[in-house]
TrEMBL record:
Role of this protein: Plays an essential role in type IV pili and type II pseudopili formation by proteolytically removing the leader sequence from substrate proteins and subsequently monomethylating the alpha-amino group of the newly exposed N-terminal phenylalanine.
Subcellular location(s) of the protein: Cell inner membrane; Cell membrane
Family stated for the protein in its record: Belongs to the peptidase A24 family.
Membrane topology of the entry: Multi-pass membrane protein
Protein name in the entry: Prepilin leader peptidase/N-methyltransferase
Length: 258
């Protein structure tokens, strides 16, 4: 039942994230005007605003001008729902669940925006610090998890310093990456230091692999700008879902069992 409820919530949140992804980089209001076709300006009818099903009913075209509607809209909704279900399956009905569902939501929005405009908007990243602290507070109070919270804060500081140093290097990290790093550090630090290390390492590994593949396909060269936010977020969630097994596997390589 929890996974069904969370899946439906994820579809609804994903529908809202489509608005965030389109409007935030353009500095437009998230409230007014109502959802409308970018081509003809006609408002989207309520029956067509149903996540995924609305796009299918319209067959991917505007009901008024028949301009094509990108399949990215239902894809964002589906990915958000799937990520919500995965997070709920990982944490169950716990005090931490809302905090990590929120991280999943902003991860989808930030990844797509960074791929679109190569920017991680402050309007999403900076308020997320306060939201994360508020959402994790019930877990701290309920379980007296002060050590986990402190570890999260220390991990946030460590990743901030690391990314700040990298940003100071020639062709280093962007300012948005530096601002996002402590937020991810806090979430990963709550889970453990192994998650922090794996999440940080995975970001660079994934980014390097994709960058090498793009250069191999001649879609990029050494000086090409590649958005790093999606790899930071992907690495963080890899650590959330598989941090412990990866750490155990790596430890077995260092200290093989007899």
């Amino acid at each position: 039942m929890l996974l069904i409820v969370v899946a439906l919530l994820g579809l609804a949140v994903g529908s809202f994230l489509n608005v965030v992804i389109y409007r935030v980089p353009r500095d437009e209001s998230l409230i007014h005007p109502r959802s409308h076709c970018p081509a003809c300006g006609s408002e989207v009818r309520n029956r067509h605003n149903i996540p995924v099903l609305g796009w299918l009913m319209l067959r991917g075209r505007c009901a008024d001008c028949e301009a094509p509607i990108s399949p990215r809209y239902p894809l964002v909704e589906t990915v958000t729902a799937a990520l919500f279900v995965a997070v709920a399956a990982k944490f169950g009905l716990t005090w931490e669940l809302p905090a990590y569902l929120y991280l999943a939501a902003i991860a989808v929005a930030l990844a797509v925006i960074d791929l679109d405009v190569m920017r991680l908007p402050d309007k999403i990243v900076l308020p997320s610090y306060a939201v994360a602290l508020v959402l994790i507070a019930p877990a701290v109070i309920a379980h007296h998890s002060w050590q986990q919270a402190g570890r999260g804060l220390i991990a946030a500081a460590v990743l901030y310093v690391l990314y700040w140093i990298l940003a100071a290097l020639p062709s280093g990290m962007g300012g948005g990456d530096v601002k996002l790093a402590p937020l991810l550090g806090f979430y990963l630090g709550w889970l453990g230091w192994s998650s922090v290390v794996i999440g940080a390492f995975a970001a660079f590994l994934l980014g390097g692999l994709v960058g090498a593949a793009l250069m191999g396909l001649r879609r990029a060269h050494r000086k090409s700008r590649i958005p790093f936010g999606p790899y930071m977020l992907a690495g963080a969630f890899l650590a959330v879902f598989a941090g412990a097994p990866i750490a155990d596997w790596y430890s077995s390589l260092l200290v093989p069992t007899v």
